[in-house]
Amino acid sequence: MHSLKGLIPTILDLIPLAILLYILKFYYDYFTRSIPYPGPFPLPIIGNLHQYFYHRNDMSSWHRQLSSRYGGIFELYFGSNKYLMISDARIVERILNTAKNNNYFVCIETEKGLDKLQKGNNGLLFNADLKSWAFIKKVFVKTIASPNAIKTAIKFVGNVFQDLEIIWDNLIDNQGQFLNDEQKKFVDIDFIPWSKNIFAECITLLIASRQFNLLSTHYNRISNINPDDQKNSYEEFLDRLIIVSDCVQYYTTIPSFIRNLPIINLYTNYLYKNLLWTRNYASNLVKKRREEIERIENKEELTLDFLNMLLTTNASMSDEEVGDNIAEIISEGINNPSNTLSFIIYYVSNNPDIEKSVLDEIEKIFDLDSNFKVTYEDLCKLEYIDAVIKEVLRVRPVMAMISRFSDNPDQIDNYKIPASTQLVIDVIGLHMNPKYWEEPTKFNPSRFLSSNNKNNDTFDTNKNAFMNFGGGLRMCPGKQLAMTQLKILVVLLYSKYKIEVITKDPSTRNNINTQCNELKISISRRM
Ligand code: HEM
């Protein structure tokens, strides 16, 4: 006789049943979805993530394939979350509009993990609350994007570059080698940390009027002056901000029940603790600044940088909230332009004709003695360098995808957009689409020159096919600053140094190809 105990299913027996029910529910929802769009067939739990990881190193051609097979709107599943991918410029134009009451103001639904990180109603990037977003945007525009702020930024980049020049010249003198019959010394460097430190110095000067001597600290470490130096706390803060970006991506794509599974929750805790560390660090900086401001009798003496302005115009913001804002701008102000500068060096130095045109333009516009200064007016004349930067951002856009969330149902042309749907503007798909670009895979800055009429027509009529800084209400507010900084740095780097690229593929090491992970270059003094 069977014992009763044998008839009661054990938890282990129930697992296959639970999985089967989950799969049935997944495909029931999939086949009965209200507005079905075409797209690659998803698997339960992972959706299309396996395809994403398979194509991670060549996202451009994957997105090209998907948009040519499935059209201007198609579905992709990241885990069990459905995303509508948009790669038609006409639809993009309707989604990215500048009206404050537009249906697509929110980037990512707050309940998708942002609430756990307290990021849904603070800062700019993920803020879903129009009122607090508009306040911070106003302060940003005044202190970072106004003509005065841009002129201040030009001065800061010039000063930071002077420091870099002294350090690089020391490096070349002390560690450089003569190669073959060359009279000048060359030294090989890893460009990425230098690039990050340049932008880090500039952005902290601009938003908080502080300098952390990151360039000389980096020099001391790599040239064995202080090899065992622990990273100072600001360097650690910058390193951890990169993990914070991973943390936000992780919380917004991985459902909470998976984040909380045993073992996986160790990683979740690691990311979350890191976020708390940076939040605590930034709020301490803010607290100190608040105390300094209180000690100043004549408040008119205060430099009106982003931090001081936030502290003096909105008394109700806590140190943590102000700190979060500072951390966000520092992170955006370093990683995006530094990634772009690294790719600029990669493309310019690997294309002798393009490098020659860059050098010709520099010579035409600047009076090249060793102490020449770059002015705002001169930067406006740089048409070719401007085109090079745009072309780099076309082929290697910093953000391969731009998110928007639909509040209400909408209809764009023949396409119905359901309410509460996560839309993703497929930036690479747009940038690589032959409908909008002649020979899209070719690196050709001339397509952006006004003298090149044919391509320019294409560019003008398809401006929504060029999403390098996003668009509409939430277009990147740092665009002007970034373009200015990049132009100055291209002028200064190429006029002062001869640069050769050693790295074959800057996007190796298992990451998507819009991220420059490695850039070894060889530098020697030009003048
Ligand atoms: C080459 C450099 C840069 C590129 C390519 C870039 C690109 C972008 C893109 C594509 C977006 C999303 C726009 C959208 O959703 O429509 C964005 C947003 C943003 N960027 Fe940039 N960015 C750069 C530099 C900067 C800099 C230097 C700063 C700050 C100083 C900055 C601050 C921001 C902020 C705060 C947002 C969020 C705006 C909002 O949601 O309202 N970016 N950026």
Q: Can you offer a commentary on this structure?
A:
The chain crosses the membrane at residues 7-28. Keywords: Heme, Iron, Membrane, Metal-binding, Monooxygenase, Oxidoreductase, Transmembrane, Transmembrane helix. Helices cover 54% and strands 9% of the residues. The protein has a four-stranded mixed β-sheet. The protein has a four-stranded antiparallel β-sheet with strand order 3-4-10-9. It is of the alpha+beta class and 527 residues long. It has helices at residues 4-7, 11-31, 49-54, 59-70, 89-95, 130-145, 147-175, 191-208, 214-222, 233-253, 256-259, 264-295, 306-313, 319-350, 352-365, 376-380, 383-395, 427-431, 453-461, 479-496; strands spanning 73-78, 81-86, 177-178, 185-190, 401-405, 410-412, 415-417, 422-426, 497-501, 520-525. It contains 20 helices and ten strands. Bound molecules: protoporphyrin IX containing FE. Protoporphyrin IX containing FE binds next to α14 and α20.
Largest sheet: 4 strands, mixed
User: What gap, in angstroms, lies between the N and C termini?
Assistant: 96 Å
Structural class, by secondary structure, is: alpha+beta
Count of alpha/pi helices = 20
- What is the topology, as strand order, of the major beta sheet? 1-2-8-5
